[in-house]
Design a protein that fits this description.
The protein has about 200 residues and is α+β, with helices and mostly antiparallel strands. The chain has 6 helices and 6 strands, in the order αααββββαββαα. Strand 2 and strand 3 form a beta hairpin. The chain starts with 12 loop residues before the first helix and ends with a helix.
Length: about 200
């Protein structure tokens, strides 16, 4: 259970990104090795592998610097009313999602995430439903299932509300309410039927 009203880090995020970088580097080296074995590399203009190597060195150098820099800025917080996410190496950004706008909370775990014991929690809202992906994703966390339940518990405590207008969206768990309404409606119909039958016999 993550603490309430306190910022926390996605503790597995750096390891997840560095694993991605290591796999990408291994693929590049494998391609270079294949080109060297087949002799294609030595038939190229010497400037081509030189420029390509320089670009690859700059890209991997930048990623090696950016990953920990981004991790230092990333943080999540569960307040009494909303989920907050802040991040940004060059430009600071902050996203907030109120609990009463949340319509679905999903979890996912890819093969690389499984390697580093991490997963992601996707938070969807009514106003974001027509777009690809979640409005807010809590990634790089090991307790993603617990975080999903923690958010859902907060959502169930509040009536869901649409992002546009004043129309209210049905809460996530309303089966008990629907059953109660159906029972009341059935009782009313039986009462009306009884009155009608009494009117016929008079």
């Amino acid at each position: 259970m993550r603490p309430q009203n306190e910022w926390f880090k996605p503790e597995q995020l750096r390891q997840y990104y560095f694993t991605f970088e290591a796999i990408a580097l291994a693929v590049v080296l494998a391609i270079v090795g294949l080109l060297a074995v087949t002799g294609i590399l030595f038939e190229m203009n010497p400037l081509v592998p030189l420029i390509g190597g320089a670009i690859a060195l700059v890209v991997f150098g930048y990623l090696t610097w950016w990953i920990p820099a981004f991790y230092r800025t990333a943080g999540y917080r569960f307040t009494d009313d909303e989920v907050e996410y802040r991040r940004g190496v060059f430009f600071q950004q902050k996203t907030t999602v109120p609990y009463n706008r949340i319509t679905n909370v999903g979890i996912s775990q890819g093969p690389i995430e499984r390697l580093v014991n991490a997963g992601a929690v996707g938070i969807h809202t009514a106003g974001y439903g027509g777009q690809m992906g979640a409005e807010l994703t809590i990634g790089g966390v090991s307790d993603f299932e617990d975080i999903q339940e923690q958010i859902l518990d907060r959502v169930r405590e509040r009536p869901a509300k649409a992002t546009e207008g004043e129309e209210t969206v049905e809460p996530i768990d309303t089966r008990a309410d629907r059953d109660e309404e159906s029972s009341e409606m059935l009782s009313e119909l039986r009462h009306i039927r009884k009155l009608l039958e009494q009117g016929r016999t008079e």
